[in-house]
Design a protein that fits this description.
There is one protein chain. This protein has helices spanning 2-13, 15-129. With 165 residues, it is mostly helical.
């Protein structure tokens, strides 16, 4: 009986071997189906990953567009500010030029009037020095009063500056 038992154990213990022999094609089909299912899941996961990547790329693109829009508006604002400063600078430069021109004209007039005043003072001082203090002074060369500082000098009318009449 031991031999029968051993034979039965061998037969039943080798069920895996019997399964391979009897169900080999079925097992192969099952394994192929599982492989196809895994591939489909992988493709689905890949498609979802691609979709997620495309969505993330779309969000990045949208964010970049928003950034470009904000930078463009800021740049436009800064350009407008610079234009206002340039206009103000031109206005101030024009005012400065007009002011300096007027100042130069005033200085020229002051110099001319100062020269005329100095010439009039020199002429007045010279005439005061040669003023005749006698009532009968008819000498065409000017008066010769008895003053010590005029001894040895002859009267000559003061020289006029060039351009004076």
């Amino acid at each position: 009986m031991e031999t029968v038992r051993t034979i039965l154990e061998l037969i039943l213990g080798c069920s895996t071997l019997w399964g391979f022999i009897l169900y080999g094609k079925a097992n192969r089909r099952i394994k192929d189906a599982e492989a196809k299912e895994a591939m489909a899941k992988a493709e689905k996961t890949g498609a979802e990953a691609d979709e997620a990547a495309n969505e993330a790329e779309g969000h990045r693109f949208d964010n970049l567009l928003k950034l470009v829009d904000s930078l463009t508006s800021r740049l436009s604002s800064l350009n407008a500010t610079i234009d206002r400063h340039i206009d103000r600078n031109r206005e101030l430069s024009d005012r400065l030029y007009r002011s300096e021109t007027e100042l130069n004209r005033a200085n020229e007039r002051i110099i001319r009037l100062t020269e005329e005043r100095d010439e009039a003072r020199r002429e007045s001082d010279y005439n005061r020095m040669w003023r005749c203090e006698r009532s009968d002074c008819q000498d065409p060369r000017g008066g010769r009063p008895p003053r010590d500082k005029l001894k040895g000098m002859t009267y000559e009318p003061p020289a006029k500056a060039p351009g004076d009449s």
